[in-house]
């Protein structure tokens, strides 16, 4: 089986006062036995992304999601190829890639439509809009 990494913190043990005494932190190697979960629960953790084959990025600031961190790095041009791949994989897994593709297609269609309407208005056919107002006299 592949090495799996925690992408969330897991409270593994608590004392009689309810205080956490053993934690698996994000980035730690984790197994099903470490978490003491059933096969079904383990598969659910993998499906939800709480446990993954990809290593957790080391330099993610506390309190920031990995996705937000990676988006910031992409925006500033500081993302490595590996980080770009990870962000793309996250977008595919969440369905965000489909949404982004649809937005890009819609934006492209709007641009094409804008170009065709500007060329028709420059062809000598003026575009006019009329507004009607009704005033009632008292």
Task: Please write out the topology.
Blueprint: E1 5-6, E2 10-14, E3 20-24, H1 32-35, H2 39-48, E4 51-52, H3 66-76, H4 81-94, H5 96-121
Antiparallel strand pairs: 1-4, 2-3
Helix pairs in contact: 3-4
Give a quick rundown of the structure:
This protein is mainly α and 138 residues long. It has helices at 32-35, 39-48, 66-76, 81-94, 96-121; strands at 5-6, 10-14, 20-24, 51-52.
What does this structure look like?
The protein is built from five helices and four strands, in the order βββααβααα. It is mainly α and 138 residues long. The chain has two domains: 1-56, no CATH class; 57-100, no CATH class. Helix 3 (66-76) packs across helix 4.
Q: Termini distance? A: 85 Å
Radius of gyration: 26 Å
User: What is the H/E order?
Assistant: EEEHHEHHH
Uncertain regions: pLDDT < 50 for 5+ in a row?
120-125
Mean pLDDT: 77
Q: How many domain regions?
A: 2
Residue fraction in strands: 5-15%
């Amino acid at each position: 089986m592949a090495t799996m990494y925690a992408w969330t913190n897991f409270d593994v043990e608590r004392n009689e006062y309810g205080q956490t005494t053993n934690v698996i932190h994000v980035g730690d190697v984790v197994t099903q036995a470490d978490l003491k979960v059933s096969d079904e629960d383990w598969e659910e953790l993998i499906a939800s992304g709480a446990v993954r084959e990809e290593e957790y990025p080391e330099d993610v600031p506390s309190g920031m999601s990995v996705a937000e961190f990676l988006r910031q790095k992409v925006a500033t041009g500081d993302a490595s190829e590996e980080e770009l791949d990870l962000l793309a994989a996250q977008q595919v897994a969440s369905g965000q890639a489909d949404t982004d593709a649809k937005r890009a297609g819609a934006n492209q269609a709007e641009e094409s439509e804008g170009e065709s309407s500007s060329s028709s208005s420059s062809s000598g056919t003026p575009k006019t809009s009329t507004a009607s107002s009704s005033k009632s006299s008292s």
